[in-house]
Design brief:
By secondary structure, the chain is of the alpha/beta class. The protein is built from 21 helices and 25 strands.
Length: 613
């Protein structure tokens, strides 16, 4: 099958849909719209400037920006030259940013925002290959050694431009025609949970095929759908989602600050969204916190609605036929509680994609019960990213869906998922040995994930191959499965399971402090700072009860025997999360090494502690 290069697909969409609001952004005056024709004019103008600066096919250009219209302008300006986009996470550390730009030998960088501009300029002396810095929305005071995006594209770049740019657009179309599908489009440096980042080489064919095959059957409609972009566009997951919006004429609204997502949901009222499990966990935590912080009557109604929800799971999540009594109770619960939850997300969702990591089954079922259609998929940067996905027409809750068209999946003898198809990367930039270790001679990519295919072809993910814990007793434990169980408790905000080469499984647990504070207020229990709360005996007792309850269905060797309570959640800024909010296990273990060692030392000294599993 032929897959057109990305600039040609954008040009086709602009010509076909001529969307009056291809892009949307918010400032202090509210939401603004950018027509497709104006988007193309800006792309062509910036691309012409990059060519004037000497950027040619194969050259690498960095993009360092939050989610905003300029991100895609820069992306397609680069791609239209046959050059290579090197995206950098908008809150990246200086050392890692310098590594990416130097390793990729980027000749230029596009930067958006005053903070991003400052950070790049502070690194200039460490970037010998970098010749040009083009900045959007840069500080106006002082002399800056940068080229200004607003000057390049002409007029008010945040609103309308000046002139139609017909000559530049025609030149862009001619250049775009020379780009071929097999050409390198991007170098995406994977954050990884350990070790030095690697540059994943993805071609136009890789990305274009994934937009076509990964969204087959989703039926995006430019007349009625609305997209929202808030996950980092530097990550392939949101990037391909953005391409899917633009290539089908669906308006995409950009959220620059993650803290503004709740407001954007109610103002833009998207119908389609991509998110990661941590986003849904936070939604659930807010729902529970709000539901249990009202009057005694409101709390009783909320708790009743949750019980009704649990009874409705077979119906709402798995398609079973409900009894008339369950149906009636759900309608009452919906009128009292569930519709408010949907309203807080805009109330128009028809498809919410969840990826990057497995979503806890109980949480996924809860979201379906309240009327939020979450469709899990699976992929990784090296597969551009989608390998399998549920969609509205084909969905099995708990799975990550059937394999997408034109992609093959097989399960190795040790349970590892292997993938072959047009979405599989060229390899790791300047790392031929690691490329050969990951992709076989006949094109099969080893994902590092453990999974299984059911009799109907739906894929299920068990865990990360390299993250499986092996206890001192030789038992293998999948930590994500146990962590998802723990996080299903309203008293637990986050958790990381430990126990590799140890006698038993333990955990680092971040309590839900809002719920604990409410409980303390209701029952006149000891309250105070987070440190005081985690030291309070009643808090530890409550968490211990939850851990025991949640681990009941697990095998003995999988259960959490002991835990450490932490006063602060894991964060990207603290170096404990990747930018897709996955745990950096090695980093976290090193950070809390003293507490972990003390936990196991105390267990060794306690004669009541169970023998090794």
């Amino acid at each position: 099958m032929e897959y057109l290069p990305l600039p040609q697909r954008l040009l086709g969409a602009v010509d076909t849909y001529a969307s009056p609001r291809a892009q949307m952004y918010r400032d202090e005056n509210g939401w603004h719209e950018i027509p497709a024709a104006e988007l193309l004019r800006r792309i062509a103008a910036l691309s012409a400037e990059l060519e004037r600066l000497g950027i040619a096919a194969g050259d690498r250009v960095g993009v360092f920006s939050t989610n905003r219209p300029e991100w895609h302008v820069a992306d397609f300006a680069i791609l239209g030259l046959g050059a290579v986009n090197v995206p950098i996470y908008f809150n990246e550390s200086p050392d890692r940013m310098a590594f990416i730009l130097n390793h990729s030998e980027a000749k230029a960088i596009f930067v958006a925002g005053a903070e991003q501009t400052r950070r790049v300029l502070e690194l200039r002396d460490r970037l010998p290959a970098l010749r040009h810095v083009i900045c959007a929305d840069a500080p106006v005071d002082g002399e800056l050694d940068v080229l200004r995006y607003e000057t390049i594209v002409g007029g008010n770049a945040a609103g309308g431009g000046s002139g139609d740019g017909a000559a530049e657009i025609e030149a862009y179309r001619r250049r775009a025609e020379s780009v071929v599908p097999e050409q390198l489009a991007t170098l995406i440096y994977t954050s990884g949970t350990t070790g030095e980042p690697k540059g994943v080489m993805l071609t136009h064919k890789n990305l274009s095929s994934n937009v076509t095959d990964g969204f087959c059957g989703t039926n995006f409609d430019h007349r009625s759908d609305q997209g929202l972009s808030f996950l980092p566009l530097s990550h392939v997951y949101e990037r391909v989602m953005g391409y899917a919006y633009l290539f089908t004429g669906v308006p995409v609204a950009y959220v620059t600050d993650m803290n503004d997502v709740p407001r954007a949901l109610t103002e833009v009222r998207p119908t389609i969204l991509a998110a990661v499990p941590r986003f849904f966990e936070k939604v659930y935590a807010r729902v529970v916190d709000k539901g249990r912080s009202g009057t005694r009557l409101k709390r009783a109604i909320f708790d009743w609605a949750l019980r009704v929800g649990r009874k409705s799971v077979p119906w709402k999540a798995h398609g079973a036929q409900p009894s008339a009594w369950v149906r009636l109770q759900w309608r009452i619960a919906d009128r009292l509680i569930f519709h408010k939850i949907r309203a807080a997300t805009g109330g128009r969702f028809r498809m919410v994609a969840s990826g990057s990591a497995p979503l806890a089954k109980d949480l996924l079922e809860f979201l379906w019960v309240v009327g939020l259609p979450i469709f899990q998929g699976y992929g990784l940067t090296e597969t551009s990213p989608v390998v399998s996905t549920n969609i509205p027409s084909v969905n099995r809750v708990g799975s990550v869906g059937p394999i997408i068209p034109n992609v093959e999946v097989r399960i190795a003898a040790d349970g590892e998922i292997e993938v072959r198809g047009p979405c599989v990367m060229l390899g790791y930039y300047q790392h031929p040995d690691e490329t050969r270790a990951t992709i076989s001679a006949d094109g099969w990519l080893s994902t590092g994930d453990i999974g299984r295919l059911d009799e109907d072809g739906f894929l299920y993910i068990t865990d990360r191959k390299k993250e499986l814990l092996k206890t001192a007793g030789g038992k293998f434990v999948a930590p994500q499965m146990v962590e998802n169980l723990l996080k299903s408790s309203s008293y637990i905000s986050n958790a990381m399971v430990l126990g590799n080469q140890r006698r038993f499984i333990s955990a680092l647990i971040v309590p839900n402090f809002a719920v604990l504070a409410t409980l303390a207020s209701e029952r006149s229990l000891a309250d105070g700072s987070r440190e005081e709360l985690i030291a309070a005996p009643w808090v530890r007792e409550r968490i211990e009860q939850e851990v025991k309850r949640l681990c009941t269905p697990l095998a003995h060797y999988e259960t959490v025997k002991r835990f450490v309570l932490l006063p602060d959640d894991f964060t990207f800024e603290g170096g404990e999360l990747t930018y897709t909010l996955k745990l950096k296990r090695r980093v976290i273990e090193e950070k809390y090494a003293s507490q972990i060692d003390r936990l196991y030392a105390e267990a060794d000294a306690d004669p009541r502690t169970a023998p090794s599993d």
